[in-house]
Amino acid sequence: MLDKEQVLKLANTRMPFGKYQGRPLMQLPEEYLLWFQHKGFPQGQLGELMALALALKVEGLDRLLDPLLRQ
User: Fold this and answer.
1) Handedness of CA 18, 44, 28, 25 (dihedral sign)
2) What Pfam families does the record point to (predicted)?
């Protein structure tokens, strides 16, 4: 079951580094998240949110967060 606070953090957290710096985590390409899964997600909350983003994308549920995304 998804935690409401975690979902809100996911919707409003931006990638802090790399090629997609500044982009909301839910807008990261699935291929990029899969690469991180293989390499190893970052430690801590960022890695947890990236793993959640990937899980939602794989299950086709990523569009459910669109209304929550800050522009």
Assistant:
1) negative
2) QSregVF_b
